Amino acid sequence: MREATVRNSIFFIIVSLVVAIFCFAEVGWAEPTNVTVRVISRDAKFIGDSMGGVKVTLRDAQTGELLASGKTQGNTGDTKRIMTQDRNRDFSLSTEDAAKFSATLDLEEPRLIEVTAFGPLAKQTSANRVSAVQWIVPGKHLTGGDGWLLQMPGFVVDVLAPSMNFKLKGGVPGMVELKANVTMMCGCPIKPGGLWDANRYEVKALIKRNGKTAGKVSMSYADITSQFSGILHVKESGTYEAVIYAYDPNNGNTGLDKITFMVSE
Length: 265
Prior knowledge:
The protein is mainly beta.
């Protein structure tokens, strides 16, 4: 009887140890892993609070499982550090207060993770989407330097004139003023001789009338920070569409907005 009790006790201990080992192994692989994501405007600064931030999503690239999501928060960063300072290979563009999204992932094994950024959220008509994929190993944080850095191409272009309810006074022929506000994706301003030089960019309107190509209008700096204007000469009535784009020939960066308006007799 006593021997049976001892055997049972030993069996119980062994089973408990086996269970503990498996539990420890399972828990032991799940390690908190920190990830920091920053999104920088092409040829400009970080996209943060002033532009509504950027929506960031982290997923398992192989299964599609959602791991974390949120938006970048913080300011656009140090202008001199980002735009003019000399750099070596370990140089960080960001400062602590530069816009970022941070998440802690509980990873049990290495995972191929996809990050997607969409924004700026305050100007969704100009928003772009970028993504990247990389392996992340449990406990190996992706926070050093600038963290996981994504570059967002584009310009924020807002058509200011004409309005959608525009009606040409006096009939045709006539003139229609075209005006747009153009900034970098971080909201950084554009002006002649500035860090983001208005003379560097091409701003034009592509015109359609009744769905058919009807010419182009060159637009120039309007003596107001970030604003460009031009004149469309109309000779016929109809439904017009103006696609106003900004283009940087030095790096191909492009953004646009469009408006549809009526010209009647």
